[in-house]
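Render this sequence as a predicted structure.
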Amino acid sequence: MKFVDEARLKVQAGNGGRGSSSFRREKFVPLGGPDGGDGGGGGNVLLRAVSGINTLADFRIEKTYRAEHGEAGSSNDCFGRGGEDLYVPVPIGTIVKDSETNEELGDLTHHDDTLLVARGGKGGWGNQKFKSSTNRSPRQYGPGLPGEKRTLHLEMKVIADVGLLGLPNAGKSTLIRAVSAARPKVADYPFTTLYPNLGVVDVGQHRSFVMADIPGLIEGAAEGAGLGIRFLKHLQRTRVLLHLVDIAPVDPDADPVRDARAIVSELKKFDKDLAAKPRWLVLNKRDLMPDDEAEQRARAIVRSLRFREPHFLISGATGRGTKELAEAVMKFLEEQDREARAREASAAETGDAQPAST
């Protein structure tokens, strides 16, 4: 199925049913009075995040999703049946915006998260609701209100803990194949990865994280060079970036240091918050040269970049060093989780203490 990460759709909530204008007609009950029931409310339209859907391809052709209308009221104080709500399944990680105002309506980040995007119209009143001391026989009724209409813009962002970053052919797809069950295409030409791939990295019992591989960047991507930067948004939810650098490029004119700086520059042009995320250097393809030369070249690259964050020398093709890398990433993520829980506990204690002080 084609990978689609943006789409538009129209939603139409159900209209409310009209109220009834009716009078009680029963033997031996003269002047029974109004007994028209209210109309039923229109159905709502809601989006629901569902696991197992990994693309917005179902919405690649703009569609209109309509909820059921409410039924009209009837005599004998009978209310009309309300319209059923319509649930539209979308991938986890979908951001929903109003196309006209660009207002963000919600972000569905967990399975079964739901978002009301169009509210159904209220049912109209029956004539019994218009009865008063001065209007004993009302004949008016409510027509029912129309349901909301909206045009939505959906944008899907992959949810992953770790994002892979680098030039085409830096070895990102090879790495994700080495540490997970994902099987993205690998070939000896640029841009073999055309859309994001996800892989679950299993480090041990009940210890795993999700890794995302996106198409490679080149210098000038922010201006549209190569595949551009449209896939960088899929790294915005990650907690750490692994920046892969090819220490043995085929092109003799290639400079790993210059290329690494170019990638960072493209990151900053796209999103400063993304550029500020923790970023580790992963020096790949050590299998293409003797160990001493690979280690010497890796040290020179780290020194030239003045890189102070963690860095690793690996071979995605042979798997050498990948286990240590995965273990280090897992420990980093676990430490982040512990710190987050500690902050939440501290905030809860502070919140409990505030009422007592007053």
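Summary. Residues 353-358 have pLDDT under 50 and may be disordered. The first strand starts at residue 6 and ends at 12.
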